[in-house]
Amino acid sequence: MLSGGAADVKNHPYFHGANWDKLYARRYPAPIHVKVKSAGDTRNFENYPDSPVDRTPPLTSAQQAEFKEF
């Protein structure tokens, strides 16, 4: 399946009528126009709680001893 590479994708019925040259030249209009105020504007993203920085459990005494001379 898909042994023909990109040609298999381009010839798939789902993409029937797609103008690949226009797509390659980036001439299709964007389906969604997002408004941003600056490069750091994150209003269009979901808010997630801050993750804890340290997710690694601390070393046991035995594990720490392995690094004694390091």
TrEMBL record:
<keyword id="KW-0723">Serine/threonine-protein kinase</keyword>
<keyword id="KW-0418">Kinase</keyword>
<protein>
    <submittedName>
        <fullName>Protein kinase A catalytic subunit isoform 2</fullName>
    </submittedName>
</protein>
<keyword id="KW-0808">Transferase</keyword>
<feature type="domain" description="AGC-kinase C-terminal">
    <location>
        <begin position="16"/>
        <end position="70"/>
    </location>
</feature>
<dbReference type="GO" id="GO:0005524">
    <property type="term" value="F:ATP binding"/>
</dbReference>
<keyword id="KW-0067">ATP-binding</keyword>
<dbReference type="InterPro" id="IPR000961">
    <property type="entry name" value="AGC-kinase_C"/>
</dbReference>
<keyword id="KW-0547">Nucleotide-binding</keyword>
<feature type="region of interest" description="Disordered">
    <location>
        <begin position="39"/>
        <end position="70"/>
    </location>
</feature>
<dbReference type="GO" id="GO:0004691">
    <property type="term" value="F:cAMP-dependent protein kinase activity"/>
</dbReference>
<dbReference type="GO" id="GO:0005952">
    <property type="term" value="C:cAMP-dependent protein kinase complex"/>
</dbReference>
